[in-house]
Design a protein that fits this description.
Number of strands: 4
Strand order of the largest sheet: 1-2-3-4
Helix content: 25-40%
Structural class: alpha+beta
Distance between the termini: 81 Å
Radius of gyration: 26 Å
Strand content: 25-35%
Shape: elongated
Largest sheet: 4 strands, antiparallel
Length: 133
């Protein structure tokens, strides 16, 4: 069996605790349904940081009792948007700061453009079906 240093065990424990705090339910929250059938799903951005360090202070290599360990960790959860589902249509409502770049803005507008295109295609299909009758 491999000799393990206590610092490795402590780092693993800290990582497991952070992993338990940051799961998919933290990023995409539970759906909330209103009385009129609208479903709202919160979406969050999660940042976490971990810094660890340690060292041996023993002059004898076989003495594991003289070591120091330090740990600093933090988690930030920021709500960024809500997915709104109503009558089969999905909209993304951003509550974060506006997009700063052109590409970010395009990605932000994509769901709205897809909804409008779907509506236009649906109306044209209805018009062509009506003309055929």
């Amino acid at each position: 069996m491999e000799d393990r240093h206590p610092i490795g065990d402590m780092v693993e424990t800290v990582m497991e605790k952070l992993k338990g705090m940051v799961d998919v339910n933290t990023i995409v929250g539970a759906a909330i349904t209103t009385v009129d059938g609208i479903t709202i799903i919160p979406v969050c951005k999660v940042n976490f940081a971990l810094g660890t360090g340690g060292g041996d202070f023993s002059k004898k290599p076989d003495n594991d009792n003289n070591f120091a360990f330090g740990n600093a960790s933090g988690v930030t959860i920021t709500p960024v948007s809500f997915l709104v589902v109503k009558d089969g249509n999905i909209r993304l409502l951003n509550i974060s700061t506006p997009a700063s770049g052109t590409l970010d803005r395009l990605v932000e507008l994509l769901p709205e453009v897809v909804d409008k295109l779907s509506d236009m295609i649906g109306k044209r299909k209805e018009e062509s079906d009506f003309e055929e009758e």
